[in-house]
Amino acid sequence: MDALLMIGLALTALLSLILSKILLTYGKSIDQYPVSWKEQRDISLWSPMMFTQLSVRAFWPLFIIGAFMLFQPSRFLLVGGIALITGLILYLGTAVVFSVSVFNAMASAGKESNRSNLAPGVMDRFSPFPLKPGIGSRFRPQGTSSRTGFPGYKK
Which letter, b or e, does each residue of 90-118 get, where b requires 16 or more Cβ atoms within 10 Å of its Cβ? Predict the structure, then answer.
């Protein structure tokens, strides 16, 4: 069981290194992306690059604590370590996905400034709420349901 934990921990650490590098790269790219109404971004604790660095710096001590918890004799600490590392990986993956979407939204805002839709190919063709009444709804005679042969509910 210890060998499986070591292999899993090594693969998780490798995945964490890759995701950390991607997250730091996107944080720097977002921070250096030009903003139309400002000439230069303010570098503060809450700027994308600094906040990303703080997140990654907080990630690794917690990862080490979770790895330490995996190899303690208590079953409670084993489960806690697995939960902590799983939560940290999910956090890092979510942060990478969010950073990619923010960067893509910033890049596409310059290309299509007249469109407010961030997913133009998806939402132009289909809408769950049609603009014209009657579109998307079928006329159904009173007293029948969509299943043929079964009576519908009468009001």
Answer: eebeebbeebeebbeeeeeeeeeeeeeee
